[in-house]
Design brief:
Helix content of chain C: 55-70%
Number of strands of chain B: 0
Order of helices and strands of chain C: HHHEEHHHH
Structural class of chain C: mainly alpha
Radius of gyration of chain C: 18 Å
Strand content of chain B: under 5%
Radius of gyration of chain B: 22 Å
Number of strands of chain C: 2
Shape of chain B: flat
Chains: A alpha/beta, B mainly alpha, C mainly alpha
Distance between the termini of chain B: 26 Å
Mean pLDDT of chain C: 82
Largest sheet of chain B: none
Oligomer: heterotrimer
Structural class of chain B: mainly alpha
Order of helices and strands of chain B: HHHHHHHHH
Number of helices of chain B: 9
Strand content of chain C: 5-15%
CATH class of the largest domain in chain C: Mainly Alpha
Amino acid sequence: MVLLECRGLNKKYGQKQALKNVNIEVTAGKIVGLLGPNGSGKTTLIKLINNLLTPTSGEVLINGKQPGVESKSMISYLPERTYFRRNMSVKKTLEFFADFYKDFDLKRAQKLLKDLDLDENQRISAMSKGMQEKVQLVLVMSRRAKLYILDEPLGGVDPATRDYILDTILTNFNEKASLIISTHLISDIERILDEVIMINKGQVVMHEEADALRAKYKTSIDAIFRKELKNAR
Amino acid sequence: MLGKLLKYDLKANFKFLAIFYTLALVFAVITRILFAINNSLFLTILAYIFNGATIAMIANILINNLMRAWVHFKGNLYGDEGYLMHTLPVPRKCLYTSKFLMGLITLIVSTLIIAATMAIAWLTPESFEMLKSFLAPMAEILDSTAIEIVLLMIFVVFLEVFVMLISGYTGIILGFKKLSNRTGWAILFGFISYIAIQLVILAGMFILAGVNPEIGEPLLSSEQLVPDISVLRPVYILSIVLYFILIAISYVLSVKWFKKIDLD
Amino acid sequence: MNDFENSTPVYLQIAEKLAIQIFGGKLAPGTQLPSVRDIAIAKRVNPNTVQKALAKLEEEGLIVTERTNGKFVTNLKELIMEKREEYAAELTRNYEKKMHEVGAEIRMPKIMWLNDGAAEILEKVEQMEEKNEERSRRWFF
């Protein structure tokens, strides 16, 4: 079943073409790595999928439908910035999520917060950036969503947390859901990927199964990626 | 869903406005007490200082109500929080409607608080009689009571301020469609939207003036004619009707323009 | 957790690890395998990858699926032995290839027989043979 489809997707900012004719399909039950250097258009693509940007042309279909209330109730999205109301406590933020998302698992969120040593009674504004990012990840992973989209989830976290995050992703993962992780830190996550979408200068340069790529090039995705970028330059 | 959104929007705004409400009411009480005692020059001076402070607070409530609503609108829907708000499973129309109602409700509460502040600070049997006698001729001609006239005036001013508020929203929606200098564009579009509404109302008045010579003659003639006060009634009615129509149009257009967004 | 190489397909690596456990007896014939999810979490890989690894082993016959109960190591000991031989032959070929690359002489069984310890080994082999005739015969010949 195709969960996400982009058809001829273009995004221009004035004269600048941020995305050029992107055509991708993601089926259910897959962990997909969205790989690309900074400024390659990863975040633009993700924002288009989440209806935070309006495409210049082309369309995004989630479960066959255009972005809207239905798609938003299916997608659990971790943006690359923190989006909390800063004067709310973590507890209030959990309530906010439970209020709006039917698939939010409060117990699970509380357990994850505890595992990560985060205090529910603390105000968001009193937390460090790293802590805020962890809380946000907990909220996103505590939803029973169909499609998880994580934009650079491993950026600013320490290795121990990175492992915990990957474990959380795997434990939470079920075969009906799909997960898209954007990152430029490929070696950390390539082990868990089913598929790889490589994007450079706003264009999809590769979309293949991870193991097929390894078998074909007899090297790691990370190395393939570096080579691909070098050739593109 | 709209109810939940509104709950969070109201909380965020009233938390902020509560400070000004409290200060205004406290200053009003102090003013009242000081004027009541008023047994030394020092206390009189102090009373006038607090009198001034009360007036300043009333202005503050209005200004901050507007500013806060705009800042909240921009921050909540176009700032980092927008990433959360726009990915909630609610129609985008609901997001706007919630802000619209939030503006309306905070403005009603602010109006009530301002009225209460004024009453606490200045309302005495004498001042009430003075107001009544001042408005009496007008009330007589309009076949109405002084209280009704005061309420009508407050209502028109309220609509005027509400139009300002939603013009600000419209300005932000349009301004944030631009690629750069979005806040600047937002302010410009806000002004344009506000002035457009004013112009339509003015045009309505002129049309009314053309139809009704009693209003038209003093308005259009170069001689210094004092208009018959009774013409106020159709003017009021027309402006209120126009305000309602324009607010409805502004709502529909804003919702339409809000459908397509580009977050930073 | 990081005992995977990123340069070869991960599912092949998982399949190999499981096969080695089956050959070595760590996973005895007839043993039930943990669920795909459990293996995935333990090995910190994607469940789909584990699924693919198990599918490969199943194709080779090393594991079998019982409709309702899950996946088991096959009871066909002969098949396990056979596959083990194939694997051992593969290892030997790799060894020979590597030795050839470094220009060294291949020194496997020959040298063992010439060793002082050879007699001891032989003795042990005989003891094992008594315990499990067939198994030890396949091991050496």
